[in-house]
Amino acid sequence: MRLFLAHGYGGTTIEMIAAEARVAKRTVYTTVGDKADLFVAVVRRLGDRVVNTVAPDAGDQVGDLHAFGVRLVRLMLSDEAIGLHRLVTGEAAKFPELAARHYANGPRRYIGVLSGMLAALPPERIAVRSDDHEELAEQLFTLLMGEPHRRRMFGMDPAPSAAAAAEHVTRTLKLVLTS
């Protein structure tokens, strides 16, 4: 991740990665794959911090959704994720497949988790009447990222504290859920 963030995708080579890891280039290729595979592995590993910590509590689905939302907001607004997002945005025209793989292994993955969590809620808890949990999850993801993400991308705000992220998620869920 450090090399990609420092040199960009196009400026980072397998040679640089192998040297940083103190392994042979062949080891990188056989262990992870090519540079695109390595970049996707970086994105997935970052996302695992959020996705792999989902431990449903059958008694409190709203609490689970809130906790996931807080972890998601903190991750997506972290310096690392913002750096990767800027990198992919800047490189998307030259490497469109990389952008698509980044989306599939980042935002699309998180939307899938949100969709499952929304589907697990009793229908009366969802303020917006829709049977399409995937569409609702996309909208929720957009609300969670929204202006805070844009301000981070432009370097206008620091990463949020846990308390600020929790407050933002609470306000956002009030738009989607009933009391």
Which features would summarize this protein structure in a list?
Homeodomain-like_sf; 179 residues; DNA-binding transcription factor activity; 73% helix; mainly alpha; HTH-type_TetR-like_transc_reg; TetR_C_Proteobacteria; DNA-binding transcriptional regulator, AcrR family; Tetracycline Repressor, domain 2
Description of the structure:
It is built from ten helices and no strands. The protein is mostly helical and 179 residues long. The longest helix has 21 residues, at 133-153. The radius of gyration is 18 Å and the shape is elongated. The model has no long low-confidence stretch (mean pLDDT 92). This is DNA-binding transcriptional regulator, AcrR family.
Secondary structure tally: strands: 0
Based on secondary structure, the structural category is mainly alpha
- Runs with pLDDT <50, length 5+? none
Mean pLDDT: 92
Keywords: DNA-binding
DNA-binding region: 13-32
GO molecular function: DNA-binding transcription factor activity; transcription cis-regulatory region binding
Organism: Jiangella alba
